[in-house]
Every structure is written in structure tokens, then in C-alpha cells.
Predict the structure.
Amino acid sequence: MTSTPEHHKSLLEIVRSFSSQKLVIIGDSIADRFLYGAISRVSREAPVFILRHEQTETVPGGAANCAVNLASLGANVSLISVVGNDEAGRELREKLDSAGVDTSGVVTAEKVLTTTKVRILAGLAHSNKQQVIRVDYEDLPLTDDLLHEQLLEELKRRVDDANAVVVSDYNYGVVSRKAIDFLRQSALSRGVPVLVDSRSRLESYEGLTSATPNEDEVEHLIGMPLVNQEQLESNAAELRARLKFTALLVTRGANGMMLIEEGVPPLQIDAVGAHQPVDVTGAGDTVIATFALSLGCGATFSDAARLANYAGGLVVMKRGTASITSAELETSITSDQ
């Protein structure tokens, strides 16, 4: 989709107002670890390669990655989440602090294991490394009522002066039913948009402002495969109505995005940038961060979706869990003539 110079100018004006916004994120924080190594030889113990370790890097993932993206885009952002009193939790908090995220709402819990996803990337010496396996360290979903109450109090303290709220639900239990009810009653009544990224329980967020599912998640929610564009449009529209969202932004990978709004024809937004992504890890966090931040600035859903599309096109060209800056976003917009 090609925009006019006037429209590019209006999108740039939205981006330049990012720094005046305050956003709150509540959700599941993840420590994304990337272990890099070179294949040295075949093991004598088993028919497997031996990987000579080169470096290990830990970066914020999940809700924490969304928070870092918002801070990188210039927003004032507060994260409400839980980490364990372990090495991964301490590293995660340090990375968030250094990125400029307000972590005063992040609770360190003695009995919680910080969710950690270790991606092992291997290759020959001096070659590009490819992900060969991922090892997940997960706790049971959070069910501690006292912790949930503590998180709810943190949310209540921060919502009053927020321009938008993001819920990042990776199904680890940080977002309670009470938190959802509070956002539905308090934030929405004040006209604050509440955006949801939920991997497996989007139906629990009925009545909030919008969500950003991908095509696979839409298929799962409607219980049938989507075989063509017309079916995607009709079923996504039915899903939006059923969940009582004001809008639904469906991410489609190389096919861009599709925005569904009540009373408006579906808007298909073509992908920007290279057709072959380098790495899609965490791209959904960047998309919802940009979408929410734009709406917080007062942008229309269509303009917010277009900006999220530019952001998604940028971040998939970076390796690992990454973020983008407002300067990069501006450059992408101005170069799309």
C-alpha cells in the first residue's frame, strides 16, 4: 500500500509525539537467552556435533520486550510483572533498567522461576549461526492470590495517568481475572485504549479496545482453516464482533496486516521492507508496542496499524529479540515513497 506525501507527514507527526506518552504494560516477562557456538567436531559419545561455546546473551522477552520497544521508541513506560529471585530474573531487571523502563512495578518472588527460553545457535567458524534447538525453563502458571493482589495494586497506581495500556499474555498467569476486569471498568471508562496480545486466551479479554492476533491464532479461535482472503476477512470480522473489540489487527507475516474495524471495510496493509525476514523472534511485541503507542497519541486505528506495519518490517530484519527506535521508524516511513 502506497501512501501520499501528506499521509507520510501525518504519520511522522505521530511518531514525533511518542516521547510525550506514558504507557503501562502488564504481563508475562521472559528472559530470552541466545547461546552462540561454533561446530568443532562430532562427539565420540553419540552421533551429535560438539558445539564450542562462544558467547551467551540475555535479552528481555515477552512483556519485557514490549516494554523495551516502547522505551526505545521514546515513550515513558512502566512494566508490571513478576520475576524470580534467580540469575535470569536479575539479568532481566538489569536489562530493563538500562533500557529506561520503570521496573518499580516488577515484583521479585522467591517461589517463582523466571521463565527463560534458551535458543542455541550453531554454525561453522566465521559463518552465520542458525538456531538448532530451544530449551525452555518454565514454572507452573502463577496462581498466588497475594502476588496477584500486589500486581493489581501496582496496576491501579499507574493507570490513572497512562495514555494506553498493553496486556502481554504468554499464558504464564501474571494477568489475573481481577486485573482484566479492572482494565475493562477503569481504563476504558476513561477513554484509555487497552491493547491485548494473548497467545491462548484472547476470549478472556472480551470488551477491551483491540488485539493483534496472527492468522494462526485467528484460525484457532474460529476453529477452522482460513483458505482465502475473503474467508479471512469475514471470519476476522465475526471474531471482532464476538469479542466486542473496537478493532482487530491481524498480522500476516509476508502478507502484511489486516485491520478490521466496526462499520469500516477491511483494510489490507501490504508488508514493507524485505520479503525474507532475518528473524521473527519477538516481532509481535514490537507490533503491539507501536500500535498501542500510536493509539495513545490519538492516532486513528488505520494510522496506528500502518505504523505498526512499518515497525514489524524493521524488527524482523534484526537477529534475536530486538527493538527499534523512533528514528528508524521515521526513516522507514520517509523511504517508502
